[in-house]
Specification:
Two copies of one chain form a homodimer.
Chain A lengths: L5 E6 L12 E6 L9 E10 L1 H7 L18 E9 L9 E4 L6 E4 L8 E2 L17 H14 L6 E5 L4 H12 L3 E6 L2 H10 L4 E4 L5 H8 L4 E5 L4 H8 L2 E9 L13 E3 L1 H5 L3 E4 L9 H13 L7 E5 L4 H4 L2 H4 L5 E5 L7
Parallel strand pairs in A: 8-9, 8-11, 9-10, 11-12, 12-14, 15-16
Antiparallel strand pairs in A: 1-2, 3-4, 3-6, 3-16, 4-5, 5-7
Helix pairs in contact in A: 2-3, 2-8
Chain lengths: 342, 342
């Protein structure tokens, strides 16, 4: 890898279905020079998330889609290698929208600011993108603020071996709930029960998954933390209790299509379910509280942080498909550069 | 009409599609004798509501479906004609589940108690089933508790010329909102704007209704009080704003089918909409507050109470179809007996 260029993935075409490498141009640009009030950041890790797929499309979404020809948007962790700003010291680790590239510029304004990670944290750096970062905060606020689980209630989470789902289930266990996860394959199902302490797992790759779901939720479902949408969501909603809550975090099963993500609304009416879509930034004002709690749980071993690391920026476009194929466990990360060498 | 029998509509078969008279047996039963702690109530008015159709079916619902062979369930107003209970005086007007019959027994227990209407109310008796009764309370709590409209926001209501919708829109106007109603036909659209004071109407019977909807909601929609479901609901949701609210009161367009009531969930996710299904009894503890406020608005002319009255118990099964055909304005009522003669 050349150190004197800035490799960038620029979006060439909006993917149809599964993401293809030909949807991007990998270009070698000059390393940018930070102006006054800016710093140059070397990307160390990229966080791969379902929302990357949304940003590549022009569907109705949270933020403007990535424009064709622009550097692919993505969250990550970097290290400051040059600084013309008192906000950043050389050697600082920072988090923010690094983009799918080797280098980026961090500034002091709302739209280009990056967060400096405090030194001496009792958790691994990569956990700051996972269980202690945006992923963990998504689980924390979605479950606790919108799901409002009470001890003894049944919490169900789909994509349960994934980055968000695995944290949701563990927090629900900490809060004294019965926790049921839906995951694909025997390995993942064993993992969430044996390693993460879920009470039951439903393997959606088995033909009898609906019967498993019924058997695993004898008292119905009080909180459904929804990640996948589609047929699984409908089956789960059919098990939801009167006055139950449904934080709608994602509908990953629909992101590779351009079809409306339709499902039956009648359980909402008949069972008086509260459904609320959200993204983590809705809870920006409470980040510090959530991050402190998550770091404490990780540091004390109450919250297990699982990650899948793929080496090399060049593999980002293929690696992101693992999220949709059900091939990864925990937080999916691309290592762009070795932190020990920067 | 014979006065010495109790005519009853008993459910013979679960309707398929539109309700047919052959779905019921009209039988002449003996007038029941009230036991100690009970009263005999002569039905004066029946309230016809979309929920009647739900109760006839065996879909997943709020209450158990009406069993085949049982008297059709329905709300109404009656007068006490015999009493063996200190809770009821002969001549009292009462509200509750009279059923589709001439006479019923009111008791003192939770499951057969009826509410005594205070004497000397400043509103017509029938308003106690409509704007000042369950219908009005449905509008009041759904809009104010779940919709949380703020002055200046845009409130949209479907089935806007109906019993609930017409009250929703008027309360939203009292609260200082821009109010848009969806209704079928020029007469209803004129009525909700000219008589009820809505800011705009969308006529769903015109081919350009989607364009009308866009034109009527230049600032999007902050509260969608949902009554109809289906294609109209999807079009409305596509206009809803970030952090908007959607009290889900009904999906009348789906009640005559046995299909799942599917619609696109993605606006909930992307726009972080809060959707909550409800029925009026969810707010039982606050009924007195709501009823007092509604009666004051009706008595002072701020809230217009519209009703369509059909004469004769024998017409109940055909009259209820008007709710689904879009043929009625305001509260749909069957007059079973003349209050002046009882």
């Amino acid at each position: 890898m050349k150190n004197n260029v800035n490799r960038q993935f620029r979006l060439k075409s909006r993917p149809v279905g599964r993401i293809k490498t030909t949807d991007f141009d990998l270009v070698e640009a000059d390393i940018p020079e930070p102006a006054q009030g800016e710093a140059l950041v070397r990307t160390l890790y990229l966080s791969l998330d379902p929302t990357n797929r949304i940003w590549m499309s022009d569907m109705d979404q949270y933020m403007p889609p990535v424009e064709l020809g622009a550097v692919m948007r993505g969250g990550g962790i970097g290290v400051v290698v040059k600084s013309n700003s008192p906000a950043y010291q050389v050697g600082d680790h920072v988090t923010g929208l690094t983009g799918w590239q080797d280098y980026t510029i961090a500034g002091e304004k709302m739209d280009n600011r990056m967060g400096v990670i405090p030194k001496g944290l009792p958790v691994p750096l990569t956990a700051m993108m996972g269980a202690c970062g945006m992923t963990g905060l998504t689980a924390y606020f979605g479950l606790l603020e919108l799901g409002q689980p009470k001890a003894g209630e049944t919490v169900l989470v789909s994509a349960a071996a994934g980055a968000v789902g695995s944290v949701v289930g563990q927090i629900a266990k900490i809060k004294g709930c019965r926790v049921v996860g839906i995951a694909g394959g025997a390995d993942k199902c064993r993992y969430i029960v044996e390693k993460l302490g879920f009470d039951a797992a439903v393997d959606y790759k088995r033909a009898d998954w609906k019967e498993q779901l019924v058997a695993a939720t004898p008292d119905g479902i009080d909180v459904n933390f929804e990640n996948v949408g589609g047929e699984i969501m409908e089956a789960v909603m059919a098990r939801m209790n009167l006055f139950s809550r449904m934080p709608l975090c994602g509908m990953i099963s629909g992101y590779n299509t351009d079809q409306p993500m339709r499902a039956d609304f009648s359980p909402i009416l008949m069972r008086r379910i509260q459904v609320r879509g959200f993204i983590v930034t809705d809870f920006f004002a409470k980040y510090a509280e959530g991050a402190r709690q998550l770091a404490e749980w990780v540091a004390t071993g109450k919250l297990h942080h699982e990650e899948t690391i793929v080496d090399g920026l060049e593999n980002a476009p293929t690696a992101v498909n693992r999220l949709f194929d059900g091939q990864n466990m925990g937080k999916l990360i691309v290592r762009v550069a070795d932190p020990a060498q920067h």
